[in-house]
Design a protein that fits this description.
With about 400 residues, this protein is an alpha/beta fold. The chain folds into 2 domains: about 210 residues, 3-Layer(aba) Sandwich (Rossmann fold), CATH 3.40.50.1400; about 160 residues, Rossmann fold (3-Layer(aba) Sandwich). It is about 40% helix and about 10% strand. The strands form 2 sheets. The chain has a 4-stranded parallel beta sheet with strand order 2-1-3-4, sandwiched between helices. The protein has a 4-stranded parallel beta sheet with strand order 6-5-7-8, with helices on both faces. The longest helix has 22 residues. The radius of gyration is 21 Å and the shape is globular. The protein starts with 7 loop residues before the first strand and ends in a 5-residue tail after the last helix. This is Coproporphyrin III ferrochelatase.
Length: about 400
């Protein structure tokens, strides 16, 4: 998109409970429309209740908001930062109302999801469109969204330091990396969502050779291929990773077992590798996550770590970007490249480190449409985003 004169920045995120009484209402929000009874939700609630009913994601978003404000100020960019969530207070619609009351009319949004896909990109655009309609602000408040940033230098380099340190630490523990494996972990998604995100560009040869359709194997769809490209890049740029084996794995799947999701699960992959070779240690890189929210500290730091312990393996999980200076600076770079009020010489060039990037500011109209269990597409306001003032389609 051509640069515009934006007057505010919105940090959009998932949200999380901030006390035991919030847990079930929060999970009802997350699963709205699926008819899941509270007794089923209580099974997931135990993850939050073990941590006092508090998800760390809200404090992490407060820290990220403050870091963005500091970086914008350091660069002399006058752009107030607001924060809105999909599933918990502060909700996106109320935040949009507050921005409008404060006199803002053109807003640029940064989300806490880096990759392409329904939940990580399109759903945020739907949230914005729904928020404008619910508040009666369509036509009065314009909201755009920055591109997906999975291969932006700021995001990629924020993982590299942790991978390097993790491998050095594993060398100190084991004396060698010969029997160490690096797992790049991300959130699993239904294979139908992976297919909707699109086939990997130039992947026809892969499909011809394997017969795989998007979502069936790693690399045959955009979502998994983006992760693979970033993982490969990180291994190449980390000297300690030379000759170390690695793979892309998934976590946090939900729903009935009859619905196929991307595999392998990290725990299954760990067990299989331990059987196949004399594995002694694993380094886990949470490549699909921006911060240490519940699915990181439970699914990786609790469940995957326990699997490693049962298998007699050394386990080390590297940091998420959080408020790493390179990550924060990279987000502001992507904001700055869209700001008409900055002189052209001060707008950063669009950066992307893989063959996929830099990703589109405006995605194709029908990308990442959610497929329901009955095979139909989810009704969505995204089809009329251009009418309600939300761009990024």
């Amino acid at each position: 998109m051509a640069p515009k004169h934006y007057d505010a920045l919105l940090l959009a995120s998932f949200g999380g409970p901030e006390g035991q009484d919030d847990v079930i209402p929060f999970l009802r929000n997350v699963t709205a429309g699926r008819g899941i009874p509270d007794e089923r939700l209580e099974e997931v609630a135990t993850h939050y209740r073990a941590h006092g009913g508090v998800s760390p994601i809200n404090d992490q978003n407060r820290a990220l908001k403050a870091a963005l404000e500091q970086e914008l100020s350091r660069r002399g960019i006058e752009l107030p930062v607001y924060w809105g969530n999909r599933n918990w207070d502060p909700y996106i619609p109320e935040t949009l109302q507050e921005m409008y009351r404060q006199g803002h009319r053109r807003v640029l949004t940064v989300s806490t999801s880096a990759y392409s896909g329904y939940s990580s990109c399109r759903q945020y655009r739907e949230d914005l469109g729904t928020g404008l309609r619910e508040t009666g602000l369509e036509g009065s408040l314009e909201v755009d969204k920055v591109r997906q940033y999975f291969d932006h230098p700021g995001f990629v380099h924020s993982f590299q330091e942790g991978l390097s340190q993790g491998l050095r630490s594993m060398t100190q523990k084991l004396g060698t990396l010969e029997k160490v494996h690096v797992f790049f972990a991300t959130h699993s998604i239904p294979t139908s969502d992976a297919a909707a995100a699109g086939p990997r560009p130039l992947a026809q040869q892969l499909r011809d050779e394997t017969g795989a359709e998007p979502g069936e194997v790693n690399g045959a769809d955009v979502y998994s291929a983006q992760h693979l490209a970033v993982a490969e890049l990180l291994m190449e740029m980390t000297p300690e990773a030379k000759d170390v084996d690695w793979s892309l794995v998934y976590q946090s799947r939900s729903g009935p077992p009859t619905v196929p999701w991307l595999e392998p699960d990290i725990n299954d992959a760990m067990e299989e590798l331990a059987e196949q070779k004399d594995l002694r240690g694993v380094v886990v890189v949470p490549l699909g996550f921006v911060s240490d929210h519940m699915e990181v500290i439970w699914d990786l730091d609790t469940e995957a770590k326990e699997t490693a312990r049962e298998l007699g393996l050394e386990f080390l999980r590297t940091p998420t970007p959080g408020v790493h200076q390179q990550f924060v600076s990279g987000l502001v770079d992507m904001v700055a490249e869209r700001l008409e009020q900055l002189p052209e010489a001060e707008r950063p060039e669009r950066a992307g480190l893989t063959d996929f990037g830099p990703w589109f500011d405006v995605c194709r109209p029908n990308c990442c449409v959610k497929t329901m269990r009955d095979g139909t597409q989810k009704p969505t306001v995204a089809a009329v985003d251009s009418e309600v003032g939300v761009s990024g389609l």
